[in-house]
Structures are given as structure tokens and as C-alpha cells.
């Protein structure tokens, strides 16, 4: 396969040689005609023999002069073509070398920026791609490390308990078996959460959507966790009286709200409160989960949705740290989002689930049933 440089050089030479050939042909024809005409006008003054001799001399010298001119023009054209082809190909070669290094996994590098706007745009896009690949690689490595860490604790507990039972260090008892079963369930939940998160990231979550009332979903989620709030001494208030129609996968939205409420409970001390408020405005339905807990710093707000990020220790700090990540991913799969805000440490935090509004789930039902 011919290189781009050789093709550019050949094209420049072809254009230059064609131009030189045309100039030689036209120059020779015009020069011969014009010289002959001029000598014809001078025949009377010079005499016929002298004029003819001059014309013959011009005609004999002219081809040689044009040939040497053509050779000189071709040489200059070749030099310029080589220079221009190198100038054009050099930045492309630099970009190609950078792309090869990126393909080998060397993402941390600066791609040379050519002076040409089009090539500079290509270089900028390639550098941005390299940065994104670097971040993805860092996330992948961190994810593997953190998953291994998450698995290590329950596996250690299971192994220790089973070895103790085998060595008869402890007697077989329902408590020992329950401890093993609890750690196995923890591993199972971790696997399920990671699977959900992976599918959400790849936009492969299967959503079984239907018209629903977001207020009813919020009330059900709060009712499900109410015993845990009572046990922790945290007051749970729900403002979800008016129906808010949405088209969603009810189970997935329930999962989002359980994660948001569980996170609020984890970081709210006894005597505090968590408020759930459902509303709608400008085509978006919202569920606000506001707590009076530990609050978030600016750095925590930037990282709170990262995988396995736990932030400040709170009640149940042994959680897996991917609940909020899953909540945001599932919300975005519905065309919505989950956002966080906080006045600062010690001032509580607010997490807002936003979803596009939909048709009223009660519309079209039998009036007798609505009654």
C-alpha cells in the first residue's frame, strides 16, 4: 500500500510537470510565431538572407532553452512538492503515532496540535478520547479492587465460621448457620447490585414501564422502611397526597427510593428527621428526600454518586456504597436523574429524583371502579 506522502508527492509532481509541459508547448508555438512575424517586418531593413538566418537561429536555440527551462521548473517543482508533502504528512504521522500508543494502553500523553484547523480538531478529539479511556481504565481498576474488598469480608466470615465448625471450635448452632447465610446473602446482593449497575451503564436495563402514580410509589417505599426508621429513632415524614402521574417501571423506581431513603437513614442520627415530598412542575415529577443528618462537603457532592464511595461514616457504614450510583443510573434509564445538594457538613442533605411526567394512571378506568 502506497503511503500518503508518496501519493501527495506524486500528485504535486504530476500537476507541476503538466503545467511545465503546457507552458513549453504554448511558449514554443507563440515564440516561433511572434519571432517569425517580427523578422518578417524587418526583412526590408536587414535583407532577406539575414532575416532568414536570424529566424533559423531562433528556431534552433528555442527548443534547447525551453528544454532547460522545463528541467529547471521540474526540479523546483519536485523540491517544493517534497517540502509540501512532508509538511502535510508530518502532523498526520504524529497523530498516527499517538493513536498507536493509545491502542497499546498508554493513555496519559499529549497529542501534538498541528497548525491546520481540521487536523488540530482531530488531535484534540484524539486527546479527549485518550483522557476518557484513562478515566475508564482507572475506574475499572478501582472497581475490581473495591469489589475484591467487598467480597473479602463476607468470604472471610464464611470461611472462619465453617473452619471453626469443622474443627469443633464452636458448636453447630442456628446462630452460626444464620451468620453464614447472612454473609452469603450479602454476597448475593452485591452480585445483583453490580449486575444492575453494569446493565444500567450499558443502557441494557429491561424496563417494564406502565402508567403509575409516583406519590403512591413513594408512600409504599416509606411504609416499607418505616420500622427501620422507628428503630433508629429517626422521624419519617411523607408529603405525597396528590397523585403525580408517570410512566415508569414501578419496581425500579421503588428500588431508587429505597436506596435514597436508606442513605438518608444511614446518615441521620437519632432524633433527626427525613422528609419525603412528591411534586411536579414544568413536565417533570420529583421526589425530594431531605434529611437533617451529617450533610455533605463540596468534594463529597462531586463524588457521592461514584461507585463504592461512602463518604463520612454513618449508621450502617458497612454498606456497599453503590446504592446512590444504582439510583442515578436507573433514573437516567427512565429519562430522569438523581441530584444531590447540601448546605454543608452538619446541615443535612437533599436528594431529588426527577422523572418525566406521564398520563394519569387512573384515566380510562371504569368510573364505577374509580368511585
Automatic annotation (TrEMBL):
Reactions catalysed, as given in the entry: ATP + protein L-histidine = ADP + protein N-phospho-L-histidine
InterPro entries found in the cross-reference section: BphY/WalK/GraS-like (IPR050351), HAMP_dom (IPR003660), HATPase_C_sf (IPR036890), HATPase_dom (IPR003594), His_kinase_dom (IPR005467), HisK_dim/P_dom (IPR003661), HisK_dim/P_sf (IPR036097), Sig_transdc_His_kin-like_C (IPR004358)
Regions crossing the membrane: 65-84
Class of the enzyme per the UniProt entry, highest EC level: transferase
Its EC number(s): 2.7.13.3
Source superkingdom: Bacteria
Coiled-coil regions listed: 119-146
HAMP domain: residues covered: 86-138
Keywords (A to Z) from UniProt: ATP-binding, Coiled coil, Kinase, Membrane, Nucleotide-binding, Phosphoprotein, Transferase, Transmembrane, Transmembrane helix, Two-component regulatory system
Region (Disordered) residue spans: 349-371
UniProt cross-references to SUPFAM superfamilies, sorted A to Z: ATPase domain of HSP90 chaperone/DNA topoisomerase II/histidine kinase, HAMP domain-like, Homodimeric domain of signal transducing histidine kinase
Domain Histidine kinase residues, every copy: 146-359
GO biological process, one term: osmosensory signaling via phosphorelay pathway
UniProt-annotated location(s): Cell membrane
PANTHER family: SENSOR HISTIDINE KINASE GLRK (PTHR42878:SF7), TWO-COMPONENT HISTIDINE KINASE (PTHR42878)
Official protein name in the record: Sensor-like histidine kinase SenX3
Amino acid at each position: 500500500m502506497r503511503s500518503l506522502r508518496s501519493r501527495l508527492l506524486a500528485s504535486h509532481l504530476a500537476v507541476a510537470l503538466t503545467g511545465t509541459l503546457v507552458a513549453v508547448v504554448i511558449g514554443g508555438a507563440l515564440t516561433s510565431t511572434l519571432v517569425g512575424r517580427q523578422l518578417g517586418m524587418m526583412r526590408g531593413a536587414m535583407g532577406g538572407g539575414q532575416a532568414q538566418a536570424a529566424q533559423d537561429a531562433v528556431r534552433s536555440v528555442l527548443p534547447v532553452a525551453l528544454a532547460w527551462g522545463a528541467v529547471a521548473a521540474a526540479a523546483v517543482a519536485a523540491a517544493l512538492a517534497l517540502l509540501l508533502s512532508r509538511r502535510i504528512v508530518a502532523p498526520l504521522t504524529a497523530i498516527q503515532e499517538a493513536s498507536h500508543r493509545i491502542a497499546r494502553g498508554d493513555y496519559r500523553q499529549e497529542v501534538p496540535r498541528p497548525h491546520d484547523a481540521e487536523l488540530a480538531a482531530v488531535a484534540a478529539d484524539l486527546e479527549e478520547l485518550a483522557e476518557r479511556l484513562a478515566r475508564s481504565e482507572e475506574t475499572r481498576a478501582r472497581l475490581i479492587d473495591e469489589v475484591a474488598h467487598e467480597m473479602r469480608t463476607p468470604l472471610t466470615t464464611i470461611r472462619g465460621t465453617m473452619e471453626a465448625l469443622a474443627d469443633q471450635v464452636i458448636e453447630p448452632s442456628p446462630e452460626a448457620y444464620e451468620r453464614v447465610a447472612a454473609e452469603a446473602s450479602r454476597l448475593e446482593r452485591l452480585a445483583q447490585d453490580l449486575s444492575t449497575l453494569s446493565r444500567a451503564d450499558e443502557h441494557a436495563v429491561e424496563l417494564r414501564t406502565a402508567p403509575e402514580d409516583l406519590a403512591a410509589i413513594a408512600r409504599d417505599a416509606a411504609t416499607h422502611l418505616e420500622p427501620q426508621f422507628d428503630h433508629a429513632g429517626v422521624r419519617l415524614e411523607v408529603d405525597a397526597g396528590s397523585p403525580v402521574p408517570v410512566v415508569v417501571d414501578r419496581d425500579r423506581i421503588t428500588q431508587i427510593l429505597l436506596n435514597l431513603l436508606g442513605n438518608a437513614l444511614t446518615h441521620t442520627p437519632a432524633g433527626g428527621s427525613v422528609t419525603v415530598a412528591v411534586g411536579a412542575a414544568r413536565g417533570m415529577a420529583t421526589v425530594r428526600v431531605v434529611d437533617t443528618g451529617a450533610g455533605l462537603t463540596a468534594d463529597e457532592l462531586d463524588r457521592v454518586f461514584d461507585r463504592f464511595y461512602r463518604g463520612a461514616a454513618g449508621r450502617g457504614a458497612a454498606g456497599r456504597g453503590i446504592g446512590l450510583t444504582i439510583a442515578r443510573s436507573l433514573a437516567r434509564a427512565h429519562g430522569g436523574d438523581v441530584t444531590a445538594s447540601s448546605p454543608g457538613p452538619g446541615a443535612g442533605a437533599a436528594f431529588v429524583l426527577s422523572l418525566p411526567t406521564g398520563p394519569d394512571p387512573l384515566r380510562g378506568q371504569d368510573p364505577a371502579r374509580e368511585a
